[in-house]
Specification:
single chain; 476 residues; alpha+beta; Elongation Factor Tu (Ef-tu), domain 3; Rossmann fold; 3 domains; 32% helix
């Protein structure tokens, strides 16, 4: 046997190739291969006998391009052997995964007992048949007024958090994980996929999960910044496969947090560059939209199943640019966004949610009588309109001064300040939706009665000064 020809491994009854031709970045090129399939898993046998895992990215003629999850350092083109495993990437799934910490490919790294799998599933998952997809319609109470009151999260929705460098997106995600409840009061099982985060961020999440007792219902996939970049591409797929198993086969309500999707896209760009593909916008591959859609669209509900998969992807906007390709494409695919504001953060407001560019496209499906409260939509509309007017007046004051404003304009200006202090800047204490709407009505009561056009039919019932409001209502 010469070192440059394919050989038969008698112990494994599979073909091994010693025909590595080229190594670049995280990729290995193997020539003279036969019967190799796209996405097929590969074992890379190093000269010292250790093994690394990889996946076929491309097959052209008799050459296969393989991405190596553990990195290509130390691979020798003359002595390294490649074994094709004749299966796609799979992960062992079980309810025993709850409370465990796994690496980016789904292998336990917490020193606990080995996982006894109930099934072994393809990480690519299967798309939900549109006919069997259930419409999201159940309110999720996050305890955060700016979300519950104005940009409601619904069970089965995908609602990303658009953050920036240094903004407390991780703190916000941890708070949602602690507080998220459905109407029945049922707690969520959490699948947390950390991609390219620092050791400090990983320690923060671990401390949050342990001190709040949430760890026992969390499956923690951990890919650190110094872990192999290519492993990052598998992490969200493994996490969502576990989430789908828990939701659709074990009937659990599953909340999937993906942080940080920007790191995932950077890994995608690195592999694309190594493959010498023609770049798209800002160097990202042209297929990034399709790739992100294959991740985000795995949220939802299925008819006849009580479980659900709800997604909260977190992404950092480079230079706080919401038009950057990553947030731009994410906004097209998902059902809204929660945007964090650097200006509010600098002023000490927490959580610094910038309400005006935020959106929840499924909000109307999850609110109203029997779900939240009959006046929810009207109060949200009135609060949004009043806050937007107050923000506009701030810019006007910078030009003409506050003395030039009317009494009503001054009230709107004061309303904007109090809205940021009481509704947005609630701190880390959670609120029920009833408390949120009550605070909203108290703020609206500071405006003239004639300005409350969007909540007119609910004034008699919910306005703090309802007795006097009923007498003034004829003036509206």
């Amino acid at each position: 046997m010469t070192p440059r020809e394919a050989v038969l491994d008698r112990s494994l009854m599979s073909v091994e190739y010693q025909t590595v031709n080229y190594v670049t970045g995280p990729l290995v090129f193997v020539e003279n291969v036969h019967d190799v399939s796209y996405n097929e898993m590969v074992a890379i046998v190093m000269p010292d006998g250790s093994e690394r895992s990889g996946q076929v990215l491309e097959v052209s003629s008799d050459t296969a391009v393989i991405q190596v999850f553990e990195g290509t350092q130390g691979i020798d083109i003359d002595t390294t052997r490649i074994r094709f495993l004749e299966e796609v990437a799979k992960i062992d799934v079980s309810t025993d995964l709850l409370g465990r910490i796994l690496n980016g490919t789904g292998k336990p790294i917490d020193g606990g007992a080995p996982i006894v799998p109930e099934k072994r599933l393809d990480v690519s998952g299967a798309p939900i048949n549109p006919y069997t997809r259930e419409q999201p319609a159940d309110f999720i109470e996050t305890g955060i007024s700016a979300i519950d009151g104005l940009n409601t999260l619904v069970r089965g929705q995908k609602l990303p958090i658009f953050s920036g460098s240094g903004l407390p997106a991780n703190e916000l995600a941890a708070q949602i994980i602690r507080q998220a409840r459905v109407i029945s009061g049922e707690e969520f099982a959490i699948v947390f996929a950390a991609m390219g985060i620092t050791h400090r961020e990983a320690a923060y999440f671990m401390q949050q999960f342990e001190t709040t007792g949430a760890l026992e219902r969390v499956v923690f996939f951990l890919n650190l910044a110094d872990d192999p970049t290519v492993e990052r591409l598998l992490t969200p797929k493994c996490a969502l496969t576990v989430a789908e198993y828990l939701a659709f086969e074990k009937d659990l309500q599953v909340l999937v947090v993906l942080s940080d999707m920007t790191n995932y896209c950077e890994a995608l760009r690195e592999v694309s560059t190594a493959r010498e593909e023609v770049p798209g916008r800002r160097g990202y591959p042209g297929y990034m939209y399709t790739d992100l859609a294959s991740i985000y669209e795995r949220a939802g509900r299925i008819k006849g199943r009580s479980g659900s998969v709800t997604q909260l992807p977190i992404l950092s906007m480079p230079d706080d640019d919401i038009t950057h390709p990553i947030p731009d494409l994410t906004g097209y695919i998902t059902e809204g966004q929660i945007v964090l504001s650097r200006q509010l953060h600098r002023r000490g407001v927490y959580p610094p949610i910038d309400v005006l560019p935020c959106l929840s496209r499924l909000m109307n499906l999850g609110i109203g009588e029997g779900k939240t409260r009959e006046d929810h939509r009207a109060v949200a509309n009135q609060l949004y309109a009043a806050y937007a007017q107050g923000r506009d007046l701030r810019r006007l004051v910078a030009i003409v001064g506050e003395e030039a404003l009317s009494d009503t304009d001054r009230r709107y200006l004061h309303f904007a300040d109090e809205f940021e202090r009481q509704i947005i800047g609630q701190g880390e204490t959670g609120r029920s939706i009833e408390e949120t709407l009550t605070v909203g009505w108290e703020l609206l009561s500071t405006l003239p009665m004639g300005e409350l056009k969007r909540v007119r039919e609910f004034i008699d019932k919910y306005h703090p000064a309802a007795s006097s409001a009923s007498t003034e209502k004829g003036d509206i």
